[in-house]
Amino acid sequence: MISGEVEPRITDLQIQSRVHELLDLPVCTNQMSSAIYHYQCPNEHTQELNNENTKKKPYNCPHSGSKCDGTGDIPWLLLHLRNDHNVEMHDGRSFSHRYVHHNPKHLHHATRMLTLLDCFGRQFCLYFEAFHLRKTPMYIAFVQFMGDEEEAMCFSYSLEVGGNGRKLTWQGVPRSIRDSHKTVRDSQDGLIITRKLALLFSSDNNSNKELKLKVSGRVWREQ
Amino acid sequence: MVLIETDTIECAIDNDEIHLNNSNNKFSTTKSQGGATVVISPATSVHELLECPVCTNSMYPPIHQCHNGHTLCSTCKTRVNNRCPTCRQELGDIRCLALEKVAESLELPCKFYNLGCPEIFPYYSKLKHESLCNFRPFSCPYAGSDCPVVGDNTFLVAHLRDDHKVDMHTGCTFNHRYVKSNPREVENATWMLTVFHCFGQYFCLHFEAFQLGMAPVYMAFLRFMGDEEDARNYTYSLEVGGSGRKLTWEGTPRSIRDSHRKVRDSHDGLIIQRNMALFFSGGERKELKLRVTGRIWKEQQNPDSGVCIPNLSV
Predict the structure, then answer these.
(1) List of chain B residues with pLDDT < 70
(2) Which among B17, B9, B10 is positioned nearest to B38, based on CA atoms?
(3) Alpha helices of chain A — where are they, by DSSP H?
(4) What's the Rg (C-alpha) of chain B?
(5) How many angstroms away from the CA of B160 is the closest CA of chain A?
(6) Chain B residues with CB inside 8 Å of A196's CB?
(7) What is the C-alpha separation between A71 and B245, in angstroms, rounded?
(8) How many CA atoms lie within 13 A of A29 on its CB side?
(9) Is the pTM for the entire model greater than 0.90?
(10) How confident is the model over A161-188, as pLDDT tens digits?
């Protein structure tokens, strides 16, 4: 109807802010991110959010060894890691691996191994790497979360190495894969041991100075 | 009683006889000492002959002599400017092979016989045994300058407390905070030692800052005041943490027969990189305020079983 009154037009900006209001949780004012797949408000106003519907920044391929440029969302990355990088995926929240090398002094600097873990409906990257920390040969193992930091902080993980009557356990919070593998390694945010200690662990029934490192661990959700 | 360890082999010349395996000695000489008659068996005489007249240490091949037959150990020979210290004649390079061979048949008790060692050894293998003898006294476990004091554990604990001013604790759990306002000053190794008394035993908890290669680290480890065999009856754990992260070490305490430096350099303990230690310290990460907790308990670690691992892939 045409009249002298003009209804103010709802601009795009106003629509966005209204949507924001809907998304604000009643308890805390954190915005719901696209990582939350299901939300029910008391009045059933909002609907299940789908990952594809939100515009999220793609992730970089976490397989840093080959300086891969691949980027994409998590489902794409999982296929990419399996098909293009031959990375193994393990089901379950606990794991146990043995890293073996017959001559660890020749272990190439920055040799790293990546395994994927699938649990709690999410995926995690388990890294094991030989490197030098200011000329001292070391090994580091850590877990990163395939997703954003806010959700990563809901989890904790532990890693345990041992042998020969000794045991070292690390408990930490998985870093998001938004942080590069190198960033996490250089901040030493993981289970880190010297090669000497690794060989001490390995010397169960082993006089050959071979590396036989058992690394076990688990992931869990913090309440 | 204080024993300062020296290289001399004590010859018990006074009233004790030296008991030998070889009981075929028919010869003996008697020596009068101020009225008392002392029997000295041939072994004593030979053993006396093997004592260097200059340094009184036992002589080992090559044993030297001068033209007049006076003997000298090889160490002292380098210091006497080619003059026999007994008769002042020119020395030369004569070797006293006969004496070296006679020493082969000599058998003597371990120098720690008075501490309980019952064993007797041929002259040439005695020193090696004595370096490993289980009855030998312990060396002071203080980490700093190599303290030469030796003795039994009771004596050493009092020595640590009184002479090295080491903290003593009773109990098998601990909770320490290591504070250093300028953690960049870790170029020179600094260390701290605390002694724990539990299970009727004494344990040394070491905490040290040092350079691992070129990276600054902190290390904590436990040593047992006793032999390795007894140390294996115990297990200890150490833990550091903060900000959702935690590092736990579990292992068997090393015997104080292994020097502090040897254990440190074997990395057999809890090692934390300085960055991580500062992270655990919280705050601005400029000050070290590292809380280390731990405990000791009676348990044997079975070195063959290692870590219990669930039966999973790989």
Answers:
(1) 1-44, 145, 181-191, 285, 302-314
(2) B17
(3) 12-23, 74-84, 149-152, 181-186, 195-202
(4) 27
(5) 28
(6) 266-267
(7) 30
(8) 2
(9) no
(10) 999 899 999 999 999 999 998 899 988 9
